[in-house]
Amino acid sequence: MESLPDAIVQCIFSHMNNAKDVAICNCVSKRWKESLPFIRSLYFPRNSFDNHTGIDHPDTIVWKMISSIVKLEELVVYSPFSSAGLASWLLLVSSSLRHLELRLDNLAEYQSCIESPSKLDCISAAKNLESLKLWGVLMVKSPKWDAFPRLQTLEIVGARLEDPALTAALQACPNLKNLLLLGCEGVKSVSIELLHLEQCCSWIRVRETTRLRNLSISNNAGRVYMVDFGKLAALEFLSIRGVQWCWNAPSSAAKVRHPWSHVCCSLSKEQPEKCAVWVCGSLSGGGGDNNQVAVKRRAEDKHP
Amino acid sequence: MSSSAENPTLTTEITKPSTEIATETAQSAKKINLKTSDDQIFEVEESVAMEFATVKSFFEDAPSSTDTVPLPNVPAKPFSQVIEFCKEQIKFKANPDETEKKKSNSEFVKEKTNEDLVEMIPVANYLEIKDLLDVLNQAVADRIQNRSVEYVRSFFGIDNDFTSEEEALLREEHAWAFEDVDED
């Protein structure tokens, strides 16, 4: 067979997001090498540099890969990196980057948080982000974020947060539609202009908001005694996950008036029944047509 | 199932789509002859042939020209597999079900050899069948995951056109990626 057209090689590249495979294909032939600049997405898995013995620092390797791409739209880095590295990458792709996902893993390193600029601060350079997903975040002081006017999705998984820092972070995301906070510790009370999210010890309260469409609440440690929702006019998706929910005070949830189209709860094994009652109770109180109510038991709960 | 007795409208609902299918088959009975580069003639139902954007525009440009459409860049072997794919796709046009479609697509690529996939790509490209092209590109990208440069070359039948110096330099530059790839 004669060689594949350039456009096809580029297509194959675009279906191949693991940076390692991209790097290997870059060495296949001249034509393949010339197609590399046109890929849109790069993904560095956690173990990307585990066995790396070369002279180049992983930060430099990522930088070299990014620098050969014309218009990178999505960058996912699960392998370890430094804030200086991140700053140098984002300098290259700040205008084209739409989706960024990073495993910061700096929960234990208080030092790295007070260094300046921190990894979080560096993200500010990627002004056109539409989605930002962060794993293992230590956010005890406000990140120096100007604004992400296009940011619609913010996910923070596994974090230690301070209220003012989270407030400041959310203020930089004025058009946020989807917010996911999973396994976040340290938040006591946060109220923001558009979405009023309040976590008070074991008390979660979401007040009136017109912008919030997807809401996920999770509790991994400690008990949640009260879930209180105000009128969430635009809410389309509600997910409640956790292992130690306590449904003693569900009556307040009946305040939800808007018909939800999708409600998803995953709970530990002794609770689905209670939860179902709670969900159905609050939904029928809402009077909407709720076609999809799924109460799922988390897989890991089956193996205590 | 027990509700069917309580619900008399259910019977009418069942008969309705079946008549639609009958009319559809009657309409699509028209066949089109397509001639491959190795001079084989395929008699294909019009609805299937219209999945090939290239063939479709051929008829739009010259509605009543020939009985047989020549496909000079398309060999018979991959073409028969492309037809197989499009026949499946048409079913989902009438009755869209993304999960079933995905399942059917992955079944389709699963039973194909590497060679089959690589041969179908230029055919799908020439005939402009976007769905198939996506499916094939994803399938080959999956199959060369964590493989060596040599494996990728033989997979696609690509000649190495780098000089040994150029290749050595590239391999040095991307040394990190060559650590522990799967055995060929």
TrEMBL record, chain A:
TM region(s), chain numbering: none
The record places domain F-box at 2-34
**Gene3D superfamilies on file:** Ribonuclease Inhibitor (3.80.10.10)
The F-box/LRR-repeat protein 15/At3g58940/PEG3-like LRR domain covers 95-206
State the coiled-coil residue ranges: none
Query: Which InterPro entries does the UniProt entry name for this protein?
Result: F-box-like_dom_sf (IPR036047), F-box_dom (IPR001810), LRR_dom_sf (IPR032675), LRR_FXL15/At3g58940/PEG3-like (IPR055411)
Q: Which domain of life is it from?
A: Eukaryota
Protein name, entry field:
CYCLIN-LIKE F-BOX
Q: Which organism does this sequence originate in?
A: Salix viminalis
Q: What is the lineage of its organism?
A: Eukaryota, Viridiplantae, Streptophyta, Embryophyta, Tracheophyta
UniProtKB/TrEMBL annotation, chain B:
SUPFAM superfamilies, per the entry: POZ domain, Skp1 dimerisation domain-like
Q: Where is this region: Disordered?
A: 1-21
This protein's UniProt keywords: Ubl conjugation pathway
**SKP1 component POZ domain location:** 30-88
UniProt cross-references to Pfam families, sorted A to Z: Skp1, Skp1_POZ
Task: Write out the pathway annotation from the protein's UniProt entry.
Answer: Protein modification; protein ubiquitination
> Has keyword Secreted?
no
Described function: Involved in ubiquitination and subsequent proteasomal degradation of target proteins. Together with CUL1, RBX1 and a F-box protein, it forms a SCF E3 ubiquitin ligase complex. The functional specificity of this complex depends on the type of F-box protein. In the SCF complex, it serves as an adapter that links the F-box protein to CUL1.
Q: Partners and quaternary state?
A: Part of a SCF (SKP1-cullin-F-box) protein ligase complex.
Family indicated by similarity: Belongs to the SKP1 family.
Q: What is this protein called?
A: SKP1-like protein
Source organism (scientific name): Salix udensis
